[in-house]
């Protein structure tokens, strides 16, 4: 019986904390009313949360005619997690607070190498970030390392890493100089976690990362569906044109060969920004490339919609430019759709640059919040 009463207490405390997260500040009475808990229960749990510095008294809330009630709020920076986004030429590091806000971001141009020097640099970047945040090391929940590769279920090993030629690389190496709990995570899965985080009402979604490489992630019931073998959502390698252009993976006609961001960047002197400026200016050759890109993308999107019947979020480098073209893309997609005349299930990403790094950090935040 004792165990049971403890667990109910834990549930109450967790509910109180989560309610406070959703509100700027609340009084004890507000909390008791909204959660249908007794005032002593609320008081007891608020005191526990205050002791742990997870919440604070933040002034008073006016009651009409009555005494002013004390207000409680969450302390967002009570803990933080760190996320790294490793790409071929760049390292992005972010720190995320308990609200999921990115409170620190840094980028470094550094080509990926499987050397001790490189992994030491990762460690230094983490240490620097912790120092800049002026947070005690004990407040750092963990470090998520997002990489363009497929990761084993235990988050320890890259089992397919053709993009960076790092198949077989381990967390032990990546985190050799990182003195915090760490995980490896697939980059597209991480980016999708960020997008789901800012849409708490969303239960199911498919996230497409339209970057140099194309990744995807399936979210069912708010969880990443990784598949039986951690290979789900690999939308970059669905066949879009039978026996079409060669893909780096060795197959022909993959979506990646038609919708990689590099195809657009190459047409814009190596810059996506230049490319999209030229599209805006109406340059005929660039418009043609962009139209073709959207056309192939619409095939992939329609296939995803037919399979999953859920919202589809467009992210990655190209997703960040998609707001202006989303209506055009929606039209192309709806023309292919057997059941629907509108493609309002198609959404552009909220995070424009740091989705992957933030999403690598968020699992630590979520885990912590769930156990409060
Ligand atoms: Zn492929």
Structural class: alpha/beta
Order of SSEs: HEHHEEEEEHEEEHEHEEEHHHHEHHEH
Percent of residues in helices comes to 40-55%
Q: Which cofactor or ligand species appear?
A: zinc ion
Distance N to C terminus: 21 Å
Largest sheet features: 5 strands, mixed
Specify Rg, calculated over alpha carbons: 23 Å
Number of separate helices: 13
Amount of beta strand: 15-25%
Overall 3D form:
globular
CATH architecture annotation of the largest domain: 2-Layer Sandwich
The CATH class of the largest domain, by name, is: Alpha Beta
How many beta-strand segments? Answer: 15
Number of domains: 3
**Overall pLDDT confidence:** 93
Largest sheet, order of strands side by side?
A: 6-5-4-7-10
Unreliable spans are: none
Q: What is the name of the CATH superfamily of the largest domain?
A: ATPase, nucleotide binding domain
Classify the fold: give the CATH topology of the largest domain. Nucleotidyltransferase, domain 5
Description:
This protein is α/β, with parallel strands linked by helices and 372 residues long. It folds into three domains: 2-74, Arc Repressor Mutant, subunit A (Orthogonal Bundle), CATH 1.10.10.10; 79-193 and 355-371, 2-Layer Sandwich (Nucleotidyltransferase, domain 5), CATH 3.30.420; 201-348, ATPase, nucleotide binding domain (Nucleotidyltransferase, domain 5), CATH 3.30.420. The protein has helices spanning 2-22, 28-35, 39-51, 116-133, 171-174, 187-197, 256-259, 261-267, 272-280, 284-308, 316-319, 326-336, 355-371; strands spanning 26-27, 55-61, 69-74, 80-86, 90-97, 102-109, 140-147, 150-151, 158-160, 182-186, 205-210, 214-220, 223-225, 311-315, 346-348. The strands form four sheets. A five-stranded mixed β-sheet has the order 6-5-4-7-10. A five-stranded mixed β-sheet has the order 13-12-11-14-15, with helices on both faces. Strands 1-3-2 form a three-stranded antiparallel β-sheet. Helix 1 crosses helix 3 (39-51), helix 8 packs across helix 9 (272-280) and helix 10 crosses helix 12. The radius of gyration is 23 Å and the shape is globular. It starts with a helix and ends with a helix. Residues 237, 247, 249, 251, 254, 256 line the site of zinc ion. Transcriptional repressor of xylose-utilizing enzymes. Keywords: Carbohydrate metabolism, Kinase, Transferase, Xylose metabolism. Pfam families: HTH_24, ROK.
